[in-house]
Each structure stands twice: as C-alpha cells, then as structure tokens.
Amino acid sequence: MTLTRLHWAFLLVVTTGACSGLTEPTSVSVTPPANPEANPAATATATAPAQPPVPAPAPAAQNAQVSASHILIAYKGAMRADASIERSKDQARARAQQILARARKGEDFAKLADETSDDPSAKRNHGALGRFTREQMVKPFADAAFAMKPGEISDLVETPFGFHVIKRTE
Questions:
Q1: Cβ atoms 127, 113 nearer than 8 A
Q2: Which of these ranges, 6-20, 22-36, 129-143, has the smallest mean pLDDT?
Q3: Between vectors from CA 169 to CA 80 and to CA 130, what angle results, nearest 5°?
Q4: Using a CB cutoff of 8 Å and minimum separation of 24, what contacts does 62-67 make?
Q5: Which residue of 13, 63, 87, 163 has the fewest C-beta atoms within 10 A of its own C-beta?
Q6: Cβ distance 11 to 44 under 8 Å?
Q7: For the segment 41-56, what is each residue's pLDDT rounded down to a tens digit?
Q8: Which of 82, 108, 101 lies closest to 162 in space, CA to CA?
Q9: Of 90, 39, 70, which is closest to residue 153 (Cα–Cα)?
Q10: Alpha-carbon torsion 102, 106, 112, 113, what sign?
Q11: Closest-CA residue to 40 (of 77, 76, 7)
Q12: How far is the C-alpha of 158 from the C-alpha of 45, rounded, in Å?
C-alpha cells in the first residue's frame, strides 16, 4: 500500500491525538518510509512525553505600569463621542492644540481637564487615569504614555476616541 503525504499528515494527527498536549506537550516523530511499500506503522514512533518547558520569566516591560492624566477632545463620529458633540475632526485637532499649548505653559493640568475634556469621567477624576499597563490602553495612547518621563506632557495623540493631551504622572 502506498501512502501519500496527506495520509502521513492524517497519521500524524491521529497518532498525536486531536486534543493531546493541551496540558502536557508530547513529542512525535513521523517520517515517510524510504520504501513506499514498507509498513507505515513501523516508521511512526512516539516518544515519551517531553518535560514541559520552563516558562521564561515575564519581561519587566510586560508588567510595567505607568500613571497618567489626560484631556480628551472628541469630534462628531469619534468612538464613544457624546451625541451632543458637533465639532469636526479638524476643529477637534485645533482645540486640542490650543489646550496642549496652555498645558505646556504651565496651567494646572487637572483644572484644564475639568474645564475642557470630553471624557465623561474628567469632572470627577480631573483627568487622572491612575495606574495602567500597555494592554489596558489603545496602542497610540499606550505608546505615548510609556515613552514619556513623569511630569512630561505629550504631543497630540490621536486615537479612535479623538485627540488626547497626556501628562505622565509617574
């Protein structure tokens, strides 16, 4: 009997089992015989379950947290924008630039957030987001927050929610 590569692939799946290895990795070696007429069962060999690999310690960067505050300027059509927001994307960008300039001149960031942010929680938390990991924020926001040093204020950061001015607090 001649086995094709498809048959060998099926034999590999059957040999290893559809769900085996979910908790314990196994090592299986299947090689097609040099002679197609050879007994295929004689060439499929399974070895004893391999020792599970020792997990590498999580890099510090994966678990790193920062703390930041932000001011969000949303525009009509931005993700989760309040229905009352009528400004265009260009208008939102211009407004965010003005707020960024005020923040960089030293105005109190919490007060600016209270007065200008479209984030609904800004009135009660003054723009403070607390501690967070990269994975908790959308990529452009996380990239900016993690690139800054405490006390720094970002350039404008555009996300699907609008334009952010971010201040890294720790």
A1: yes
A2: 6-20
A3: 50
A4: 62/133, 62/134, 63/133, 64/133, 64/134, 64/146, 65/131, 65/132, 65/133, 66/131, 66/132, 66/145, 66/146, 66/168, 66/170, 67/128, 67/129, 67/130, 67/131, 67/132, 67/168, 67/169, 67/170
A5: 63
A6: yes
A7: 444 444 445 555 555 4
A8: 82
A9: 70
A10: positive
A11: 7
A12: 56
- Residue 165 φ/ψ, nearest 5 degrees: -110, 120
Q: How far is CA 93 from CA 118, 153, 155, 157, in A?
A: 13, 16, 11, 10
At residue 22, the pLDDT reads 31
Residue positions counted in the chain: 170
**Residue range 60-168, CATH number:** 3.10.50.40
- Is 83 within 8 Å of 146 (Cβ atoms)? no
What are the sequence ranges of the domains in the chain?
5-46, 60-168
| The pair of three-digit structure tokens given for residue 122, joined into one six-digit string | 């800004």
Global model pTM greater than 0.90: no
